[in-house]
Amino acid sequence: MAEAGSFADRVKQQADIVRVIGEYVRLKKSGQNFTGLCPFHGEKTPSFAVHPVKQIFHCFGCGKGGDVFSFVMEMEKCPFPDAVKVVAEKCGIPVPRQKERTPEERKENQQRAALIEIHREAQAFFVRQLESTAEGRAARAYLEDRGLNAETIARFGIGYAPSGGDVLLRQLKPKYAEKLLVESGVISRDQSGARLFDRFRRRITFPIANESGKIVAFGCRALGDDLPKYLNSPETPIYSKSNVLYHMDRAKEPIRRQDFAILVEGYMDAIAVARAGIGNVVASCGTSLAEPQIKLLGRFTKRVIVNYDPDVAGQAATERSLTLLLEHDFEVRVLALPAIGDLSGQAGKKADPDLFIREKGAEAYIKLLKDAPPYVDYLIARARQMDLSTGEGKQRALNFLMPYVQRIPNRLLRSEWATRIAQQLRIDEPVLRAALNKSATERRGEVKVSPQLVGKPAKQIERRLIRMLAEAEGFKKELAQRLQHGRLYEGLETEKVFAALIVAGLSDEPIPATEIGAQLDERERRVFFEILFEDAQEPTWEEAESCLDALRRRQIEQELAKVQKTIEANPSGAGLRELLERKQELMKQLTAAGQPG
Ligand SMILES: [Zn+2]
To answer: What gap in Å lies between CA 214 and CA 224, rounded to an integer?
Structure first.
């Protein structure tokens, strides 16, 4: 919990929960709240709500909820201090140096900072090489040949790694320990371990930034016929291939705005598409998409157009990526670019996005992008390329399609598929459906919410009183006193929520809802947050009094029932007289408490 006056407390005061969560979830204004699809459980209709005034979030589906820090902790799977830092950074609040860090953590942080600094220096070095050396000129000519002008080169930070073998090393060596240089991945050690050298030589360099725009790796293309054609940074403490999408740092805003992303294979493709004026493009920088990359993308959109290379490897990559994207509930379309006929009229060459845009222009690309078919059509088209003249061939085509069908969570969609596959592949529909149903039962189930975790709906009067205790600045103290004095909340379903709110209400300090929530059990916290998110009218003291009356009546009725039961259980027992007197008294009180209005 954020202690008053602490850094966490200050961050919480300044942070806007809608903005922070908005970086992970697409939020729409809905009444006084914001709603979106819950990032913690799979869902198609939004049950996730954010309250801008109370600075809390709550999911009516899976029940997760809390403040901005608990959201980030859950989302980033990180401990509280890290969540505070993340939120502070997102809100531009300077983070004070942490004194209480463990020595290992401090060392790790220093190492990461130094690795980023090495990349910054290497980047400046590569850019200088491209600009001002003879070798760099040859590289520039190559880039120009690929249609990349000076403006694009500058915009994407493209540089050149010279052939010398130790030019960069000589520059970095005076400043950094050898071990650190090797760890950065820009410098390599030979097999004997004795000699260091530049990892990238005679290559065009493309800086790869993490989501927040810090360069953490390089992707490099050979200038001549050197092999391998592409050479990238190795995995390092600041770079993991499967966690990074090329161009994500710049694409995230356009992706969020347009609510879809274009996924391409390489950085040249991403650059070509971005240059065509389509900013919402990212590259997986490898032939297939990894799960962390999909999760990263999923924070900004759930709609994607996959435009991988049309070769066999690209097709396989498309299909592998499709499987993963569908599992993560993405809406996927596939753009398979047509072959480009060459001048001699021979069979066309297959085009990746870079080549296609260079040859056919941005407009032609944008048009195809708009018409990109849903993945279903793409896959059926692929299946139709198989030999369907024999039973075996049809079986193969079906086996190809089935894994995708298995991953469609929606029953209606699966059924639609069945009809289309049957028509297109000329397969007997009932046979196909039988196979489908069998595979559907084997597929991974949707996330189910366990019923005992969902808070029981509290009664209307309780809900109103809870809301008033939390919000009615004018009389919540008075209300807390009355509830406390008469013990009116005891025995209610929401007794513990009341108890926490009464303590808060009697306090002279304002206590935010998140802090009250933190004192409650998970189930009670849910009920509490749900009530806070309900649309409700401004409460009045008159209404509060009528709610109190109702609770009082309930209390009397309950005692009356208990007395009556005791009398009936032992009509000739001792103390009958007292019991009858008590009964009389309670009846009188009940009349005085009035009838429910
Ligand atoms: Zn949820």
So the answer is: 29
State mean pLDDT over 482-490.
89
Going by pLDDT thresholds of 50, 70 and 90, the confidence category of residue 594 is low
Phi, psi dihedrals of residue 241, rounded to the nearest 5°:
-50, -40
What kind and span of H or E run contains 160?
strand 159-161
- On the CB side of 438, CA atoms within 13 Å amount to 7
Task: Decide: residue 393, CB within 10 A, 0-12 exposed, 13-18 middle, 19+ buried.
Answer: middle
Q: What angle do CA 17, 18, 24 make, to 5 degrees?
A: 95
Structure tokens that stand for 468 in this block: 């008033």
Q: What are 205-217's pLDDT values in tens digits?
A: 999 999 888 999 9
Cα–Cα dist 253/284, whole Å: 18
Inform me whether the pLDDT recorded for 371 exceeds 80: yes
Q: Tell me the CA–centroid distance for residue 536 and ligand 1, in Å.
A: 23
Q: Give me the percent of the chain exceeding a pLDDT of 70.
A: 91
Cα 81 to middle of ligand 1, angstroms: 24
Q: Are 270 and 283 in contact (CB under 8 A)?
A: yes
Per-residue pLDDT, averaged over 473-494, amounts to: 89
Which pLDDT value is given to residue 20?
92
Report how far ligand 1's centroid is from the alpha carbon of 413 (Å): 23
- The CA 569 to ligand 1 mean position distance, Å, reads 49
- Tens of pLDDT, residue by residue over 84-129, are 999 998 888 887 765 656 788 788 888 999 999 999 999 999 999 9
- 3-state SS string for 361-389: CHHHHHHHHHCCCEHHHHHHHHHHCCCCC
Q: Given CA atoms 183, 189, 192, 193 in this order, what sign does their dihedral have?
A: negative
Distance CA 13, CA 149 (A): 47
33 DSSP β-pair partners: 30
Confirm if 38 and 46 have CB atoms less than 8 A apart.
yes
Residue 566 confidence (pLDDT):
86
Q: For residue 59, how far is its CA from the centre of ligand 1 (angstroms)?
A: 5
Say if residues 340 and 360 touch (Cβ distance below 8 Å).
yes
Quote the ligand 1 centre to 69 CA distance (angstroms).
Answer: 17
Helix (H) or strand (E) holding 206: strand 203-209
**Where does the pLDDT of residue 2 fall: very low under 50, low under 70, confident under 90, or very high at 90 and above?**
low
Which pLDDT score, from 0 to 100, does residue 99 have? 60
pLDDT at 1 over 60: no
The Å distance, Cα 63 to ligand 1 centre, comes to 6
Please give the distance, rounded to the nearest whole angstrom, from the Cα atom of residue 380 to the centre of ligand 1.
34
Residue 387: count other Cβ atoms within 10 Å of its Cβ.
10
Closest CA to 548 of 493, 497, 476: 476
Instruction: Please give the pLDDT value at position 589.
Output: 85
Mean pLDDT of 562-576: 83
- Rounded average pLDDT over 39-64: 88
Contacts 24+ apart (CB under 8 A), 383-386: 383/421, 383/424, 383/425, 384/424, 384/425
Take residue 210 and report the two structure tokens written for it. Answer: 């993490």
Question: Could you give the count of Cα atoms lying within 13 Å of 396 in the half-sphere of its Cβ?
Answer: 12
36 CA → ligand 1 middle, Å: 10
